[in-house]
Amino acid sequence: MTYLIKLLKDIFCILLFGLFIFLFLFAEEIKNNSFFNRIPSSFFNINTIFLSIILEAIPFILLGVFVSAIIQSFVSENAIRKVLPRNAYLAVIPAALLGIIFPICECAIIPVVRRLIKKGMPSHVGVVFMLSAPIINPVVYASTYFAFKSTPYIANARMLVGFISSIIIGLIIYRQFKGENILKTKEEGHHHEHHHHHPKGNKFLETLYHASDELFDTGKYLFIGAFLASLFQAFLDRNVLLSIGTSTSLAPVVMMGFAYVLSVCSSADAFVASSFGSTFTEGSILAFLVFGPMIDIKNTLMLFAYFKKRFVLFLLLVTPIVVYLSVYIFQLFLK
After folding, report:
1. Angle between helices 2-32 and 203-235 in degrees, nearest 10
2. Smallest Cα–Cα separation from 319: which of 184, 175, 129, 170?
3. Which DSSP category does 146 fall into?
4. Counting beta carbons within 10 angstroms of the beta carbon of residue 289, is it exposed (0 to 12), middle (13 to 18) or buried (19 or more)?
5. End-to-end Cα, the chain, rounded Å
């Protein structure tokens, strides 16, 4: 059943991308055809928005998957553990900055953190690394800076709020689960790490295989996210959108929910977020950029597969509260 769902998702994404390429090439001919001239212009606006998001994001997706694949092939968990202090409180600071050295996106971070915790990394330190690495890394910074060229401080704000939020969440986890094993002690038969039998020994080929796997997986979520974003903008009533988007208290909640559902890779989510820049507040855009890489649909499923239910539910409760409050304070005092 799981394989069938994955296959249908793959087919949907391929057909979706093919449809938009077809419309890009033949949109004018379709508009001028008397048979199709009743199609509302909104449908063609979807095509324009979708392709603009995809074309801007692809270079950063490629860069992100290759960096992630290189780390997967050449960097061991022990190398990460060695750079962390043993003090429970001090360790959260370098853990939150590890993404600068090891830029792993949220699509790959959870299995890595699980292995680190199994090898002795403190649970709360692993959580900080898991939440911050998809945000605080050079690939994500570059994509965010490029996506928000007119407001470049958004990229800096994303790094700052992501850094602070991940540390706060990690310390809360430490207080709540101090000394407790948060990993599942018994693996269920249907829970397994997502990997393929790539040829061992040849690091170059192994890197290429990892990159191709991750590119296809990440690309699916980018296509779906860009499609939903284009639908959202093309058909939602502008007055409703403006009333929601200009609310400093409600807009961040809406955009956090949107980030959770879309599950766009952090290497490309800035381009989806920037498409809402004309209708949503900068604070709500920031909430989208910080919350999405921390918690979304796809990594929620992975969290339940690898971690105890009590921990996952607690993390799902704490993370949106901390991110919302961090963004709200940023809007009030740090802008």
Report:
1. 60
2. 170
3. H
4. buried
5. 48
Name the pTM for this structure.
Answer: 0.72
Give the C-alpha separation, 161 to 103, whole Å: 17
DSSP 280-323: S-HHHHHHHHHHHHHS-HHHHHHHHHHB-HHHHHHHHHHHHHHH
Name the 3-class secondary structure at 183. Answer: strand
27 forms beta bridges with none
Q: For the chain, what is the radius of gyration of the CA atoms? A: 20
**CA 140 – CA 304 distance, rounded (Å):** 26
pLDDT digits (tens, 9 = 90+) for 105-159: 776 688 778 877 877 788 999 999 999 999 998 989 999 999 998 888 999 999 9
Residue 181 has pLDDT above 80, yes or no: yes
Angle of CA points 113, 118, 119, to nearest 5°: 95
What is the CB-side half-sphere exposure of residue 133 using CA atoms within 13 A? Answer: 26
- Label residues 50-65 b or e (16+ Cβ within 10 Å = b): bbebbebbeebbebbb
